[in-house]
Amino acid sequence: MSETQTLHAAFAAKIDAVLEALEAEAVLPAGVSRSNVTVEPPRDPSHGDLATNAAMVLAKQAKTNPRALAEKIVEKLSDDPLIDAAEIAGPGFINLRLANANWLREIGTIAALKGDYGRSVRGAGRTVNVEYVSANPTGPMHMGHCRGAVVGDALAALLEYAGHTVIREYYVNDAGAQVQTLARSAHLRYREALGEDIGEIPEGFYPGDYLKPVGQKLADEFGDAYVAAPESEWLGLFREKSVAAMMDMIRADLAMLGIHHNVFASEAELQAAGKPEAAEKWLRAHDLVYDGVLEAPKGKTPEDWEPVELPLFRSTRFGDDQDRPIKKSDGNWTYFGADLAYHMQKAEKADELIDIWGADHAGTVKRIKAAVAALSEGEGKPIPFDVKLVQMVQLLRGGEPVKMSKRSGNFITIADMVEEVGKDVVRFTMLTRKPEAQMDFDFAKVVEASKDNPVFYVQYAHARIASTRRKAAAENIHPADDSLDLLGEAELALVKLAAQFPRQVEAAAQAREPHRIAFYLYDLAAAFHAFWNLGNDDPSKRIILSDKVNLTQSRLFMADQIGQVIRNGLALLGVEAVEEL
RNA sequence: GCGCCCGUAGCUCAGCUGGAUAGAGCACGAGACUUCUAAUCUUGAGGCCACAGGUUCGAAUCCUGUCGGGCGCACCA
């Protein structure tokens, strides 16, 4: 065990070694799968510090009963000096009571590892591409994008912390009809900037004021050169310029949330490089694309529906309800056709792909998963691919829904939100709910400085620790670790919870669920507040005791490490750890 | 009609990929401020985990069906 191995890692390894040994003794069959074995703190603390289900999970494979197997495991653990007691309980749990030295040592481990306490190598450097946001470059970021942006960003940070190499990617849909509309809308604003009265923005154009500066810039750059020119002369140019302007705006919006992507992948470039053609060719060669006619949609048949022959991808082979067109009848690629090629492109540089989508795209998950399965399995290296859907957020203000109208360009933007309630509130609130459940976001509630608001609660715990340190420093007492053995049960209980952080990181990363970190931090903060308040009833339990310098130094040192864990967790969520409120 | 997500305390939500007696916050009842920040804490009450079957040593968790809520169901993105 190295100096800086976390307690969690050490005991997981210990159990693993025992099982390995039992395998060598043929108590367990060779090559038995240990993936279901867990080592974790039991819910009920009276059951000890750690519990493992190893005996129950492996009993069947070992052709014995759980308790008999548990005895063999306990036998190997009982002479370990770091374990005070190993007991078999219930149906075959093994409960471990750890020597206090473990926890005192863990305080030192946190202090030594600092910002790296909780960092894991579990990901083994495997490259994961997380694609998130990918909002169309036709306007500012609005609320609909916010949750996916925050969840994707926190997930990326979490995976990185868990030992993966992470590519944060944004797919820029700069090739479809929507960006042509953008270009035409920008052309209107361009004429407006040159003094023309354009009146009401017509139906079918983007009406938002955010295009005015774009028009002005185009006017400054090109004068009146394109006012009367045919569309063919300016459409491409204006598209490029206005998309670039939109992306600048989007990047600025994302920066307000603390989000920065590594890669902005252009759909137009993807198409210019002939990637969709290459994908189609490959799929046709493997009989996964054929020319066929779609059935009329069931339930409601559109009036203008007519059967047309199109190149179809056999997504039904992979569980989709219908084969899906990759090209439109006008010869352009469908969104799906290009997206399929795009995923192939992402897979070239990653071992694993994750997409974060809004729930309104749920209907297209099957086809894209089918496509990735087809492309990667066909090439003999299946790429794990996951689409995480984030559900809708309903905006409220004092319980009343906030009205928005997309048509008039009147919607709540991310910039509005961050300005009103702050980045930390937006991020933390979005992360204190599992993404697949719908959520309400009430402007009135999230800014309340305590009640329904976990952000302040967690930050307050961190601020209290900082304030205590300042207060002690004024008395010339500073944190020190040379007499940690003065710490009692109350402190150790807190340390035990903090020691769970590395395990929480691994579990959250494996499940791809950053919200678990938020809930864990809430629990840790609650434990700290409770610890703090012990000093109200019993002054000897206060952290600062002027007449007991050694104990004070130790408590300060311990508290600092709790603060460190809170900082590490908040960093994963992209939330500031403040020194005072 | 079909697909996906959700349904856990009065309300808002967790529940660690199937574990031991299902947990927090708010609200409600009872308490703790000459303080290291009471922006906090202690304590009580509150549950047929939507419903019905199934899988097994064991289910809130997995499977099937029913009911209820949300989202989607073009060659749109």
From TrEMBL:
<feature type="short sequence motif" description="'HIGH' region">
    <location>
        <begin position="135"/>
        <end position="145"/>
    </location>
</feature>
<protein>
    <recommendedName>
        <fullName>Arginine--tRNA ligase</fullName>
        <ecNumber>6.1.1.19</ecNumber>
    </recommendedName>
</protein>
<dbReference type="Pfam" id="PF05746">
    <property type="entry name" value="DALR_1"/>
</dbReference>
<dbReference type="GO" id="GO:0004824">
    <property type="term" value="F:lysine-tRNA ligase activity"/>
</dbReference>
<dbReference type="InterPro" id="IPR014729">
    <property type="entry name" value="Rossmann-like_a/b/a_fold"/>
</dbReference>
<keyword id="KW-0547">Nucleotide-binding</keyword>
<keyword id="KW-0648">Protein biosynthesis</keyword>
<dbReference type="InterPro" id="IPR001412">
    <property type="entry name" value="aa-tRNA-synth_I_CS"/>
</dbReference>
<dbReference type="Pfam" id="PF00750">
    <property type="entry name" value="tRNA-synt_1d"/>
</dbReference>
<comment type="similarity">
    <text>Belongs to the class-I aminoacyl-tRNA synthetase family.</text>
</comment>
<dbReference type="GO" id="GO:0006420">
    <property type="term" value="P:arginyl-tRNA aminoacylation"/>
</dbReference>
<dbReference type="InterPro" id="IPR035684">
    <property type="entry name" value="ArgRS_core"/>
</dbReference>
<dbReference type="GO" id="GO:0005737">
    <property type="term" value="C:cytoplasm"/>
</dbReference>
<comment type="subunit">
    <text>Monomer.</text>
</comment>
<dbReference type="GO" id="GO:0005524">
    <property type="term" value="F:ATP binding"/>
</dbReference>
<dbReference type="GO" id="GO:0006430">
    <property type="term" value="P:lysyl-tRNA aminoacylation"/>
</dbReference>
<dbReference type="Pfam" id="PF03485">
    <property type="entry name" value="Arg_tRNA_synt_N"/>
</dbReference>
<dbReference type="InterPro" id="IPR036695">
    <property type="entry name" value="Arg-tRNA-synth_N_sf"/>
</dbReference>
<dbReference type="InterPro" id="IPR001278">
    <property type="entry name" value="Arg-tRNA-ligase"/>
</dbReference>
<dbReference type="GO" id="GO:0004814">
    <property type="term" value="F:arginine-tRNA ligase activity"/>
</dbReference>
<dbReference type="InterPro" id="IPR009080">
    <property type="entry name" value="tRNAsynth_Ia_anticodon-bd"/>
</dbReference>
<dbReference type="InterPro" id="IPR005148">
    <property type="entry name" value="Arg-tRNA-synth_N"/>
</dbReference>
<feature type="domain" description="DALR anticodon binding">
    <location>
        <begin position="458"/>
        <end position="581"/>
    </location>
</feature>
<feature type="domain" description="Arginyl tRNA synthetase N-terminal">
    <location>
        <begin position="9"/>
        <end position="98"/>
    </location>
</feature>
<dbReference type="InterPro" id="IPR008909">
    <property type="entry name" value="DALR_anticod-bd"/>
</dbReference>
<keyword id="KW-0436">Ligase</keyword>
<keyword id="KW-0030">Aminoacyl-tRNA synthetase</keyword>
<keyword id="KW-0963">Cytoplasm</keyword>
<keyword id="KW-0067">ATP-binding</keyword>
